[in-house]
Amino acid sequence: MLKKERITRHVCPRNCYDTCAILAQVRNGRIVNITGDPAHGYTRGKLCAKGYSYLRRVYSPDRIKQPLRQCGRGSGHWVPVSWDYALEMICQKILDLKHRYGSTLPVCLNKYSGNFGLLNNAIEGLFNQLGPTTQVLGSPCWSAGLDAQTFDFGNNYNSNPENLRKAGLILLWGVNPVWTAVHSLPYIYEAQKEGAKVITIDPIFSETAKKSDLYFQVRPGQDGYLALALAKIIVEAEKEDKQFLQNYSLGWDEFREYLKSLNLNKLSRECGLNQQAIKFLAGLLINHSPVFIWVGFGMQRYANGGQNVRAIDALGALTGNLGKAGGGVHYANLRIWNMFKFNFHKTGYKNRYLNINRFAEELNQLQEPPVKMLWIANRNLFLQDANLRLLYQAIKEIELIITIEEFMTESTKYSDLVLPTTTFFEETDVVPGYWHHWLALNEQAVPPLHEARSDLDIALMVSCKMNSLEQGSCTFPQSGDASSFLDREFDDQAYSLLGIRHWSDLKDSPAKVNIPDVCWEDRIFETPSGKFEFYSQRAEQAGHPLMPALKEQRKPAAGKYDLRLLSPHSQHSINSQFQNLDWIKAIKPEPAVLIHPDTALLKSIVSGSMVRILNDYGEIVLKAAVSGAVPRDVLVCYQGIGDLNINRLLSGENTDMGSIVTGNHGLAILDTFVDIENQTD
Amino acid sequence: MGFLVDAERCIGCHACEMACKNEYQSEPNVRWRKVYPINETEYSLPERNHLSLACNHCEKPECLRVCPVRAYTKREDGIVIHDQGRCIGCKMCAMACPYEVPQYNVRLKKMEKCNLCDGRLDQGLKTACEAACPVEALSVIDFNGFTKYGFVIALPGFPDPSITKPTTRFIKPRIGAQVRRDQ
Amino acid sequence: MGEYPLILFTVLSQLSAGAAITLSLLDYFTKIDNSAGKKSTLVVLVMIALSLGISLLHLGHPFNAYRALTNIGSSWLSREAILFFLLGILLLVYYFQWKEENSFRKSLGLIISVVSVLAVVSSGMVYVLPAVPAWNNFSPILFFLFTGAALGPMFILLMLKLTNGAFSRLVQFTAVILAASLMCFIVYVSVLLSGSGASASTGSQIVGSGIFWPRLLVNWILPLGIFAWLTFKRISPDRKVVCSLFVMVFIGELLGRYLFYYASVALKVAGL
Ligand code: SF4
Ligand code: SF4
Ligand code: SF4
Ligand code: SF4
Questions:
Q1: What is the pLDDT of residues A290-317, one digit of tens each?
Q2: A6 CA → ligand 4 middle, Å
Q3: Are the C-beta atoms of B34 and B113 separated by less than 8 Å?
């Protein structure tokens, strides 16, 4: 037999810092091996453990193979149906609701970022062409920080993270790249080799802290106090960058006065570190240059999250690190995503938008018309949303719940209809980075497995069906393919930024996007004043203090639920993804809640005890692991712990910022307070 | 030949382990390479250290000694090869290896283990695990004419190397300073 | 299925070896009824064949078991297999020698005794593994030999329907063996417990297991108690008593073997 072998290019679309480029070796219509793509300058031919497990995902026996209808929500009684049947069911329902309520507003889409390719947004495009629909707006993830940087810098740019290697001091602030961005480590190591100090600031002694020269344990959510304390000490020592402050900043005098007014004792108490330690850290900041501050997403998932980020931005500014190669305050980069116009998203209708972070609450309150059909795309809503109790209640009135998935999940349990979708090896798409400066292509390596269809194909099929049932009921295209959609998305400007003539050139290599390697190098900011704004009118207009000011922490009710539960990202899953794969299960530690030895003693808990974690929203039962890596007043339960639904404990409180960039405030996931009980007594 | 595990660089990411699985598409529970998070108590401070271990291609391989069917051979270059064709699945080797290396494949009812990517090495390629390590913490070194120092034969958590004389060498992790909260 | 085949194989094969030794020595030193001797040989032979058969169940590929004979150079498993196989063949030959006075049979009996001991020793050697500290001493050999010595004589005694002086001597011998093995067991467990690491955890696994006390009871306390009581009352045990003693010890040895396999902790990487 003739052996047909080819290599196809891919990129992981899992909403991850590293967004790795992948090569697949395809033989006789089957992918036989994958490796990292050495042509990608940032990920350089390596994948993470999750990445190397992809073939198991593609060829998993657990893939959903055809559309499935559940007879009785939660019954587990699944009946395979044809695509035509499924489409008919969906479209009939949409039309029925439209006629019953006189509008398509009862039709609701809840979509997020589980598949982070450009065309994975197709379902949103479809909804935008059905009529006015109900959709969610915002992000549970990074909203507060995005707004904070928008107030300070005017936009969300970062330097090419390869600049880490030029740093003299690296502050990994509330970020755990050893788990969530392994490809940054070589650059950090390079800097270290050149003499840079690496410092991790985190409430948890993370694996990243382990790899650092120094670790500072900060009180959860109080990072801003630490930043202000450092700023105060540096300014008192007159080591601020006067030249930068004079020429490129707005509101420095006011900010200096503000710093003066702060009490170091109080700051030190609030951030949990003693003054000596803070002074030592300030000394390092003064004596090392440039300082690369990587601001993680964790510290902004608090009620004062945005302010934390603003305080750190201010620290970076007054030390004169902005715009320096190897320096700066880096959070995320929206530049590459913003290259796209999302032509297939355009809508002429006035949609009704719900806050993605108050979804259950708002769904319950919605009347005129209520939501009667819910479509879940690119997310595992019933595992990853907050205030789940309310959500279970809200869906009772919903007549049809549809989920697009590769695998059966917690969310399919609550669905009436599940549509099988392709993995990125079975579809064509592009995935931009939001941390590194690369864009890469997913070629179709193999035809869709089983009866799986890409998000785009599903949108096209629905549109066809809608129109066959009622001509003109959907204006989303009824034909076309990924290529034709990509053709429309890439314009000359995009091509010139990418240095390619056509997106298909990405088959030869991922492209480094031609954006400034060092952000704000010219020190011209995109704020209204064109300067770095310590003092932001825009912030004030949005209802925030002018300058980074920290609100009282959200505290637990006295005597009850006095432990804070942190649920950072786990090592081997991205949110709920990957954890279903047997390969990943084999390497994943058993779900456990980490508890400080002293707290454990107090509650008579030992490693291995079954414990109940509870608050007013719900409870979960799991094993305890006693660990000195966590502080006394904190429990840590990495998310992605299988069916143990940790989000049951989330109140759904929102962060202080987020509405400017993402449309709604973020989710203050880490402001969760609980009690722990030994289940065995 | 043997592995050099640079525990100073290793971040415990399991990429090596998964790359090995990807390369050989091994059964879900068969792990030729395993990354072990080491108990906090093995170090004086709560540390998060890892050891990435596969077969140690020992100088005195117990697996080879106890196997009744001579499924194990030691190549000239030191690689301990397990020939699955000969194996009858008696599990003696799994009992005898101090490092839990031979893994029982329930489907084939035979043992298997890391053969140091002999096929890849013979083609001049790096082992799949070494090629995958994002921080170059893992490498295969040739002991002939090796003169570099600073390697140790065991790290906390690694079972007594005097039994089988593993060829795996380690570079010790550096312990950073920790500033804990005052509370 | 776990280690059950191994439990059965080792206990049965040691019982058979002990029986073979008892039989051949009795034959050498005393006079045995031909047909009873022949029958006993056959039973022992069948038990050896059976135990070897059971041991195959432990293998992933039982049909390729013949290959296991190929590494006598270094593998005690190979040696064990060869020796038991050899023992089987010798017993087969022995079986056909049961005709009147036969000096060849008697000499063959001596060879059988030696091979039996060697076979049990090699069985023990299989488990003398540095990777399992609790086994890495002479204890597997010792306890395997005790198993054979405790069960074999009683078995033969019952098979041959002995009544004479040999009967009571064998019963006494069994009592002594049981007492000795109990003492060794106590010493062994205490040494383990006072050790560290894998040894200590093996020790606590043994003691902490629910099987520890039942085993102690049926394997030693009950039988030795019965012996003591009989001696005290000056009653000589009869067949029924020996029969029940045999069953007790047999069950005790099975339980003990279960503990042997399941409680021993191997060296491993100290991971979470
Ligand atoms: S891939 Fe490298 S860094 Fe990751 S666990 Fe393996 S050896 Fe360690
Ligand atoms: S590590 Fe184990 S399997 Fe590998 S050579 Fe040594 S004894 Fe054999
Ligand atoms: S399991 Fe296979 S390789 Fe291991 S000792 Fe038995 S026959 Fe040899
Ligand atoms: S050398 Fe090859 S077989 Fe051995 S662990 Fe590494 S990748 Fe796996």
A1: 999 999 998 999 989 999 999 999 999 9
A2: 24
A3: no
